[in-house]
């Protein structure tokens, strides 16, 4: 397990999405909302608590909401015309990977296994 949540640099967010996550109440909590073909995807993360939160919505309807602690890394992967957020988790009890496709449309794949 790692004590730090590794995240992409501001420039990587700018290159992929044209903006970077903005600080919320505390400077170590950041958030960004990205518009895709099938709705808006809001991402927020807390580097101190090592937590990740996603909310996928269409208009006023929340289609999917996700919150999990024990995140070890958040990365951006772009290939074959698709852009994904990849989040890795690791704790004594569970480990796994969350793959959230952002472009061209939001899609989610969550793999969680006992440690």
Describe this structure in words.
This protein is mostly beta strands. The chain is built from 1 helix and 9 strands; from the N terminus they run αβββββββββ. The strands form 2 sheets. The chain has a 5-stranded antiparallel sheet with strand order 1-2-3-4-5, with no helix packed on it. A 4-stranded antiparallel sheet has the order 6-7-8-9, covered by helices on one side. The mean pLDDT is 94.
Beta strand count:
9
State the helical fraction. under 10%
* Quaternary form: single chain
Q: List the strand order in the largest sheet.
A: 1-2-3-4-5
H/I helix tally: 1
Topology:
Elements: H1 10-17, E1 22-23, E2 29-36, E3 39-46, E4 51-58, E5 61-68, E6 71-79, E7 82-90, E8 94-103, E9 107-114
Antiparallel strand pairs: 1-2, 2-3, 3-4, 4-5, 6-7, 7-8, 8-9
In short:
This protein is mostly beta strands and 115 residues long. It is 7% helix and 61% strand. The mean pLDDT is 94.
Annotation keywords:
115 residues, mainly beta, five-stranded antiparallel β-sheet, 9 strands, globular
């Amino acid at each position: 397990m790692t004590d730090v949540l590794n995240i992409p640099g501001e420039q990587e967010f700018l290159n992929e999405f044209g903006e970077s996550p903005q600080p919320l109440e505390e400077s170590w909590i950041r958030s960004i909302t990205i518009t895709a073909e099938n709705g808006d995807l809001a991402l927020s993360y807390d580097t101190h608590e090592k937590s990740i939160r996603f909310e996928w919505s269409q208009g006023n309807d929340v289609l999917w909401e996700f919150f999990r602690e024990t995140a070890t890394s958040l990365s951006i992967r772009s290939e074959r015309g698709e852009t994904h957020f990849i989040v890795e988790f690791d704790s004594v009890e569970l480990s796994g990977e969350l793959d959230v496709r952002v472009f061209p449309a939001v899609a989610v794949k969550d793999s969680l296994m006992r440690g």
